[in-house]
Write a structure and sequence with these properties.
Layout lengths: L3 H21 L2 H9 L1 H26 L3 H12 L4 H9 L4 H29 L10 H24 L1 H29 L4 H29 L4 H12 L3 H11 L3 H37 L1
Helix pairs in contact: 1-7, 1-8, 1-11, 2-3, 2-6, 3-4, 3-6, 3-9, 3-10, 4-6, 4-11, 4-12, 5-6, 5-10, 6-7, 6-10, 7-8, 8-12, 9-10, 9-12, 10-12, 11-12
């Protein structure tokens, strides 16, 4: 898949999406950890520890081929994206918590993403033909963190402009992801049926489990309804563009990007249906408590 879509489109897409994240961020978002430590800690533990473990269990259970299994674990290691913030806003979640979680998890992913992906490669004993060179990893996270920093600077210097650009950038991010998914599916069109058969069910299960775990684990730990919704969206809605970029540009294997592409198709539907249901549950409880 050595085309303009990957050499120009993918880096540009990732930069736009991360710039959009930065437009939402301030330094105060990082300080919020001290004000809501339980919600942040539980959500991050779900995303960094529970999700990869659950994903690995599914990969082993379904006996996925090596490259698709690596792709699933790469997806599990990817942080939440700006789309999680949008879903949280639509379904009455704590968007400020989402922004904080996305920011912190993106920074943590500098370590956890190559670590988990490297372990997946080692599990399948594919070090000879699939590798993550350190210099490429550094380039990836420079491409992530630099646009975020620029977005934060724009937000600080011109908050009005940042607010005006927020919606167009979010819409653009969704359009870009759709184009990337379509490009991958077209590139792999001869194998799409087999790939869907191999990863369609596991991607759907992983998405559903992620959304449920992201809601009920924080709830069990005493996190409030809107914060639990925010956690659910953060844990269940991944930065698939990042996973696709790493698969295609760093690992140089389009097949590894297929789980992220399939997950993206499922993620929007599942997150919307789950969001509608869970927001009604939280709203009903709030009304009952007032009554």
């Amino acid at each position: 898949m050595d085309s303009a879509l990957t050499t120009v489109g993918l880096p540009l897409a990732l930069a736009i999406i991360m710039f959009g994240l930065g437009l939402d961020l301030t330094v105060g978002d990082f300080r919020r950890v001290a004000r809501a430590p339980r919600a942040v800690t539980v959500a991050l533990a779900c995303q960094i520890l529970l999700l990869p473990a659950i994903c690995f269990g599914l990969v082993v259970l379904f006996d996925l081929p090596a490259l698709l299994g690596i792709g699933m674990l790469l997806l599990a290691a990817s942080p939440g994206g700006t789309t999680a913030n949008l879903f949280s806003h639509l379904f009455r979640g704590d968007v400020a918590l989402n922004i904080t979680l996305t920011a912190i998890n993106t920074v943590i992913a500098v370590v956890t993403l190559p670590l988990i992906t490297g372990l997946a490669i080692a599990y399948y004993d594919r070090q000879d033909d699939v590798s993550m060179p350190l210099v490429e990893i550094v380039k990836v996270f420079a491409l992530i963190l630099l646009p975020v920093g620029i977005g934060m600077l724009v937000n600080r210097r011109s908050p009005g402009f940042a607010r005006r650009m927020d919606k167009p950038v979010r819409i653009g991010s969704a359009v870009i992801l759709a184009i990337l998914v379509l490009g991958i599916l077209l590139d792999q069109r001869e194998n799409v049926g087999d790939y869907l058969a191999d990863v369609g069910l596991i991607a759907a299960l992983f998405c559903a489990i992620s959304l449920v775990v992201g809601y009920y684990v924080p709830k069990a730990m005493g996190v409030t309804g809107p914060q639990a919704i925010a956690s659910s969206m953060e844990v269940g809605v991944h930065n698939a563009t990042l996973a696709i970029f790493v698969a295609v540009e760093v690992l140089d294997e389009v097949e590894i990007s297929v789980p992220a592409a399939v997950y993206s198709l499922i993620m929007f539907l599942f997150a919307a249906l789950w969001g509608m249901w869970v927001s009604r549950q939280v709203g009903a409880r709030e009304e009952a408590s007032v009554a």
